[in-house]
Amino acid sequence: MIKILAVGDVIGRPGRQALQVGLAKVRESMTPDFIIVNGENSAGGFGITRKIFDDFINSCGVDCVTMGNHWMDKRDIYEFRDHPQIVLPANMSNVDDPAKGLRILESKSGVRVAVMNLLGKVFMKGENSCPFAMVDKMLDLTPSYVKVRLLDVHAEATSEKQGLGQYLAGRLSAVYGTHSHVPTADERILKNHTGFVTDLGMTGPYDSVIGIDPDSAVRRLRTGEKRNFEPAKNDLWFYGMLFEINEDSGACTGVHRLRFPAKDS
Ligand SMILES: [Fe+2]
Ligand SMILES: [Fe+2]
Predict the structure, then answer these.
(1) Cα(149) to centroid(ligand 1), Å
(2) What stretch of H or E contains 153?
(3) Domains in the chain, CATH or no CATH each
(4) Which residues surround ligand 1, an ion (CB under 5 A)?
(5) Residue 264 above 80 pLDDT?
(6) pLDDT tens-digit profile of 53-76?
């Protein structure tokens, strides 16, 4: 059995602090074999930089970084977007390539792991292609000997994330949602095979509006004015899901929510 930890959208510097504290805490009580982090908001709330990516991989021990609609918000991503440990949303109009949304990596225990990233279409900006068709293309590219397969569905609508979960039930080891920055309490195993949760929730400041400073977010909602639109600072929490997966069959046998305050003590 292999234990894979998926961590929800890391929000700016407060989120990075929460990630560091949270991962240290997780390692005290369990030993994840493979760690996936959603990094699309890790640089000031929008995008990712090379330095932050390197810190995730080298300092935090993250194995793979998935992205989302903010993948290109910081310019230096263009220099490392083909890095083998970063996964772009395959069906986003400025990616549109199944190979860029799929990475095949190896866990600490030597098990091959396929990680995929897709965007939803419902309530999402841009002319992104159909996620259902795109995930089929990504599965066609995945060698049959790679049994452990996970998908980060980066989408707004809960219905679309659940639709993809049902569409992929029995074919992937885990399907989990990101992007809303709000956790859902519906983790379960579909068709005795596919670990599922509609949204992981964010790792970052919860005294906020989906991670953003509450005063600036409320001002923007009321007046449309976008000023000081940056991550909030208070009430840091770590949110993720631990999937236990049989490496021979690829079936998920356990889904465990990880949720705790992540402040340096
Ligand atoms: Fe996000
Ligand atoms: Fe997003």
Answers:
(1) 22
(2) strand 148-154
(3) 2-261 (3.60.21.10)
(4) 9, 41
(5) no
(6) 999 999 999 999 999 999 999 999
